[in-house]
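Q: what does this look like with adenosine-5'-triphosphate bound?
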Amino acid sequence: MTNNKSKNFPSGNTSAQKQDVLVEVKNLKQYFSIRKSLGKTNSIKAVDNVSFKIYKGETLGLVGESGSGKTTLGRSILRIYEPTSGQVVFSGIDITKLQKGKLLPYRKKTQYIFQDPYASLDPRMTVSDIVGEALDIHKLASSKKDRAEKIRDLLKLVGLNTEHASRYPHEFSGGQRQRIGIARAIAVEPEFIVCDEPVSALDVSIRAQIINTLEEMQERLHLTYLFISHDLGVVRHTCDRVGVMYLGHIVELVEAEELYKNPLHPYTQALLTAIPEPDPEVAKKRNRIILKGEIPSPVNPPSGCKFRTRCPYAKDVCEKEVPEFKEYGNGHYVACHFAGKL
Amino acid sequence: MIKELLKINDLKVSFFTPAGEVKAVNGVSYSLEPGKVLGIVGESGSGKSVSSYSIMGLIDKPGKIVGGSIVFDGKDVSTMTKAQRQNLAGNEVAMIFQDPMTCLNPVFTIGNQIAESLIHKYGKISKEEIKKRSIELMALVGINEPEKRLSQYPHEFSGGMRQRAMIAMALAGSPKLLIADEPTTALDVTIQAQILELLKDIQKKTGMAIILITHDLGIVADMADDVIVMYGGKIVEQGSVYNIFNAPQHPYTKGLIRSLPDLSKKGEKLIPIQGNPIDLLNLPQGCAFAPRCENCMKVCIKHMPEEYLTADGHRVSCWLYDSRANNSTEVKNND
Ligand SMILES: Nc1ncnc2c1ncn2[C@@H]1O[C@H](COP(=O)(O)OP(=O)(O)OP(=O)(O)O)[C@@H](O)[C@H]1O
Ligand SMILES: Nc1ncnc2c1ncn2[C@@H]1O[C@H](COP(=O)(O)OP(=O)(O)O)[C@@H](O)[C@H]1O
Ligand code: SF4
Ligand code: SF4
Ligand SMILES: [Mg+2]
Ligand SMILES: [Mg+2]
């Protein structure tokens, strides 16, 4: 997330391919079945045939509208959900094939930070217990004293102090609770963290503090992040590469700066003009691309390109054929029949 | 000189809770001209909603307006008769919310609910007239097939459509002022863009004034003519949207704008405002922002700052703008 690091992730295929891959997602599908009346079951294709790589040390952003499948994808990668099909290869090991009992070492390497710091902390546990529990599960403390010291160090690292250890979650503000969530996640010395909207529930004035803390943790502990957010301003600041999701598909994936400068997918183009720009000079003059309608139901998605019902450029072929998720040079992946020609 | 549509003077609203008096709005003054868009920003709990609900008389127990005056269209709201007040709330001033279900009743059709708003406004009104006006309103807010849609229930509408239906209800009384409380916070950005364009469009067509409450500085920059920044139940800064963004004066406003991610500074650390949001039950004695302010001086801790008019014509409540304060010593805030 620093300048130097961004420079280590140029989109050029040569250097990008030299990067170590930490997570490789191959044709991942995550379907949920929902029971309809009359005994018929329908399936929701929450994540539908998604493939991409996450490089060691990078922050990969995931943006898209509500219901597009961001959270589901994050959870399937961590095997919080059992993927319907496809593979997730973590450090060379296909974790979708691991038996439940063999997952513990993988659980230690991966963590999840939740959007809602209120709901994700047990109200009956003290901060010290919340952080300590993670240490206990993975037997990371050699003695009581060691455990207490580790907890103290973790709290300090995330910007809390020792006095906070004996308090309960309700005694903290939203930002402080998110710090507790971060302390719990890094307690097990993970390599990879899915941050699911980590600042969305927080006040604007607190967001920058938490983003800085996440960035500091990444630098110190050499973490790799999958950073889910619908705030494109935050993503632009935080992420090295960004994937854009729509109805269970990744429709565009590219280096962050390139995405903002040269979006190739019509959905990304609209999304970018929709972000409110905190500068009256720019905001008041801008021409927005206003998309028609809303994201369709994932139970009954459109045929062909799932975006075609809202796409200003849709042609016949878009209804008939699913556009392939292809590279258009420089590690810029797009799923659109007319990418680069619009 | 243009006559003000709304003039609020030293408004104070408190909630008398078991834990003590919560001074939700603590001396707020501003005025709004007809046809203008006023953006109100500030962190959660800073008094944005309560100060605006007061205009419509929507403060319920344990809350109470404990001071100040609200003058709407030349009339003092506190001296209005019950009938005048009913006309004010819903007709002359209408409100839309973050969650449309706070306005929409799930057991009535959208058509029923718009009809009710029309009856509230016009009293006796024929069925045909109601139908005609309802269809016009639905079209105005961009709902397709308005006739069919009128016979549907809220659950048959998507989030964005409910927001549109709520706006249609609000517009039924041809309000002079629309209070929009976080109207797009729960929506996705592409739907948010639709609703904001809709509000702009309606504002142009009807000439109503809008008070737009939001925590999103981007929305304010786009929509507002004037901006009020609230902190701890008070207005800390107010001015034109250009003044506020290009030359913020109050340390809190400066901090807010500085903390936004900026593409030109990608790779650099964000500059956050330190500390935590305030607790209204334990307001500091002096400036409410003092515990988080990097410019905090001795005088700030004990004494509430007055409001100063800056050279470019906007108002700021901060001791830094008092000539006497220069002699006061700075106090370091280190967290
Ligand atoms: N456990 C579940 N059972 C059934 N459907 C589910 C389940 N979890 C998610 N879904 C559905 O899968 C789709 C994707 O949901 P997901 O929560 O991943 O979206 P998201 O992109 O994270 O959205 P948001 O921005 O609202 O968090 C949605 O249609 C959702 O309703
Ligand atoms: N019904 C209520 N009872 C007690 N306190 C309330 C009530 N409504 C609002 N408040 C308090 O008033 C303060 C200002 O609230 P509000 O105007 O809703 O803030 P904002 O809209 O800026 O987030 C908050 O501290 C809030 O907790
Ligand atoms: S494939 Fe067709 S419908 Fe889909 S984004 Fe491209 S042009 Fe639009
Ligand atoms: S009055 Fe003092 S503490 Fe308050 S904002 Fe101004 S300088 Fe900071
Ligand atoms: Mg989600
Ligand atoms: Mg509010």
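Chain A touches chain B through 52 residues (CB under 8 Å). Residues B 48-49, 181 surround magnesium ion (ligand 6) (CB under 6 Å).
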